[in-house]
Write a structure and sequence with these properties.
heterodimer; A: 225 residues; alpha+beta; CRO Repressor; four-stranded antiparallel beta sheet; 46% helix; B: mainly alpha; Four Helix Bundle (Hemerythrin (Met), subunit A); 87% helix; elongated
Chain lengths: 225, 131
């Protein structure tokens, strides 16, 4: 029972610590998810490496964490206030093309971090950025000025077929379900394989078909056939 | 929403049931075992004080037998190093009783009682245990 209470206390404490550390430290998870990932891996490792520690001593705290996680998820689902407290609020880090300095300070985000995050998003010139929001999971969402926005098909009145690229053969194995979905007859697929020098499905490393009905085929090396 | 809420409540209840049942029942078993072992140890001490080593040996055999059963249960929840320490103390106690070394035997008996009390207090919900 003591380990159950201790686990819950430590979980709350580590969430609070991560929240204070700022969004920069988080990565892709919400604070409470990151804490779960960190703590569970550690808890599981202890009884694994030390045979003197009973497995139940690891299982009970992990279940306690799971319980805390389920409770927090449920509370977050129901309450906006709880979401703001546990996950934090999104922070506008660039507004109308201007860096909001106090947000940088409060989130422990320096200019280099900001520029790096913008470059990763494809914005090498900060002058192109109208709005940048630091999301709760530490990701940066960027809205450029309209002058810097890439041209879209609709701007040029160009239409394209909607759809997907369908994998038909992977490493010599035919994916029959995709073949049915793409409405390609096996006979046609075989003739396409023959066109590139293969004899059967087994000779193909990868084959796909796009929405225009065009095939892309690469044969396996002769040694692997 | 109703189905999700039901699923959520079910999950939480199952986990809570498991955690509470395992911890509380183990706590109960440990307390019961310790009471049993303490009582036998007190009898051993009494016999040693009265220099009845035959009786003490007989009581020790009973304690040893019970300890072997108890430790198998304890291994599920208690750090094995604590169990090894108690094992050594029980073994020493047996040796001292066999050789009629009353002072050493009494010291080992007290050590044994201390170990048992430590195990019992380890999982008691008290502020100093939690922090």
């Amino acid at each position: 029972m003591v380990s159950f209470i201790r686990t819950l206390i430590m979980y709350t404490f580590v969430i609070a610590t991560i929240r204070v550390m700022g969004k920069r430290q988080i990565g892709e998870l919400q604070p409470y998810e990151l804490v779960i990932a960190l703590m569970i891996s550690d808890l599981a490792a202890l009884p694994m490496q030390d045979t003197a520690i009973p497995l139940l001593s690891g299982i009970i705290p992990i279940l306690s964490l799971l319980l805390a996680q389920l409770t927090i998820s449920f509370v977050l689902l129901k309450s906006q206030k709880a979401r703001n407290i546990i996950c934090g609020k999104k922070k506008t880090i660039i507004q109308n093309g201007q860096i909001v300095e106090n947000i940088l300070m409060s989130e422990m985000y320096n200019i280099d971090d900001l520029l790096e995050a913008l470059r990763i998003k494809g914005f090498f010139d900060i002058a192109d950025v109208n709005l940048a929001i630091l999301e709760n999971n530490g990701e940066l969402s960027v809205l450029p000025f309209s002058k810097a926005e890439p041209v879209k098909r609709e701007d040029m009145n160009i239409t394209a077929k909607e759809g997907n690229i369908i994998d038909l053969i992977i490493d010599g194995t035919l994916i029959e379900e995709n073949l049915d979905m793409s409405n390609v007859r096996p006979k046609d697929l075989l003739s396409q394989i023959k066109k590139v020098g293969g004899t059967s499905v087994k000779d193909v490393l990868y084959c796909s078909i796009n929405t225009n009905g065009e095939f892309w085929i690469q044969l396996r090396s002769r040694r692997r056939r | 929403m109703g189905r999700h809420l039901f699923k959520y409540i079910l999950q939480v209840a199952a986990i809570l049931y498991f955690v509470i049942t395992v911890t509380l029942s183990f706590d109960y078993v440990v307390r019961r075992d310790i009471a049993k072992m303490t009582s036998i140890s007190e009898d051993i001490e009494q016999s040693i004080m009265e220099e009845k080593f035959e009786t003490a040996l007989h009581q020790f055999n009973n304690l040893n037998e019970k300890w072997h059963l108890i430790k198998e249960k304890w291994r599920w929840m208690i750090n094995h190093s604590i169990i090894y320490e108690i094992d050594l103390t029980v073994s020493n106690l047996g040796h001292y009783i066999n050789n009629s070394l009353n002072e050493e035997a009494i010291v080992e008996k007290h050590k044994l009682i201390k170990y048992f009390h430590n195990v019992r207090d380890l999982d008691t919900i008290r502020l100093h245990n939690i922090f």
